[in-house]
């Protein structure tokens, strides 16, 4: 191996397809060690502007040299390749949040996890039809998200030299749900270093990745809309157009006023669509079940259809209940075109189950960041009767959010939440929560109370996670009256 010339990892994989597991882990360890300092200095979000290496890591960005009997990997700086436009298949290494211009340390972990999977299996975790990929950026995102709806095979499915524990490490690294992924290079490295110890003791972590998770329908307890900052117009619509008809069904039926069947919430990420849905369930005192694409995905033929049927069966048995469908564009994508042929049966099953389900005491709430990508049949009468745009919080809502997130913390007397709201236009709920936490962390390091300056400094150094262009697109969509 020491006589081999230096080359990029993509060149190596093109020639050898699959690498020995030991070599692959050696390459990955080099990359993670390099990123440890970078990730340790992570202070703000989004991270793209401050990232010292690359916005997204692909095999083209890794140079392999050989020292003795092991490969040595280093990063190639962005621009070394002489490519201003990365090839379309580089999208396979992008973390889901990266498509929304959000780059976090965990985004690097996803990219490196995909690279590790490719090195030890010779395959990508998900299959993409690159020759059929649309040049339109939004269409390409939809195609990639749809492919990732199905859980990837364990690495040991392709390579019997991979054990159960390595399977778990790799699958956690490429988790599409950010909350389930390693947060940074240090966490990923710790898991790899624990691998030998686990083998020595014969104790391996329990596998959860491909187990069929039971769907739980349970009562939500809380204060309902009283805990929702702002959103007064939306809360008013929900109360008068949905809650009252559901609570006083017999009265509305006397007037032959249709009881709603479902509600679609759309808008930028981080604006509280999931949160308002949970509070809605508390307000109306219904049982609640939250469903994400990964909850319905199955490795078995027709397994997803069976899960959909089971979901509605459980909801009907525990009626009155609310089914909240997050990322509905991934669960119910448009069936137009050949790309979605494999999803047509699942979409048909879901549409059949949700039609007039209010008659069985089941109400549907669906949320999406990309309303133009869902199957239009979802909006027919008897399915989604109401559609609401969840906009970024307005001035009063932002002030209330600052008060909510600052509550119970050691504050200086000069903190003015109204002024904070004035200088945080277009920041969403998740941004405000992040900035309050950062200001609190900075004050803690100084062993001082949280001051107005702490908060304003963080706001000035933290750009909104939702761009002006994205907001304009949502507003244009709303004004087009396609859905509303």
Salient structural properties:
484 residues, alpha/beta, Transferase(Phosphotransferase), domain 1, Rossmann fold, Helicase, Ruva Protein, domain 3, six-stranded mixed β-sheet, 9% strand
Give a quick summary of the entry.
With 484 residues, the chain is of the alpha/beta class. The protein contains 19 helices and 9 strands. The radius of gyration is 24 Å and the shape is globular.
Topology:
Elements: E1 7-8, H1 9-16, H2 21-40, E2 62-67, E3 70-75, H3 105-121, H4 137-147, H5 155-158, H6 164-173, H7 185-201, E4 218-219, H8 232-247, H9 249-254, E5 262-266, H10 273-284, E6 287-291, H11 293-296, H12 303-317, E7 321-325, H13 328-331, H14 344-354, E8 362-368, E9 386-389, H15 395-406, H16 417-422, H17 429-445, H18 452-461, H19 468-479
Parallel strand pairs: 5-8, 5-9, 6-7, 7-8
Antiparallel strand pairs: 1-2, 2-3, 4-6
Q: How would you sum up this structure, described in words?
A:
By secondary structure, this protein is of the alpha/beta class. It has three domains: 7-201, Transferase(Phosphotransferase), domain 1 (Orthogonal Bundle); 218-392 and 472-479, P-loop containing nucleotide triphosphate hydrolases (Rossmann fold); 395-465, Helicase, Ruva Protein, domain 3, CATH 1.10.8.60. Helix content is 44%, strand content 9%. It is built from 19 helices and nine strands. Strands 4-6-7-8-5-9 form a six-stranded mixed β-sheet. It has a three-stranded antiparallel β-sheet with strand order 1-2-3. Strand 2 and strand 3 (70-75) form a beta hairpin. Helix 2 (21-40) crosses helix 7, helix 12 (303-317) runs parallel beside helix 14 (344-354) and helix 15 (395-406) packs parallel to helix 17. The longest helix is centred in the first third of the chain and has 20 residues, at 21-40. The relative contact order is 0.09. Residues 44-53, 81-85 and 196-212 have low confidence and may be disordered.
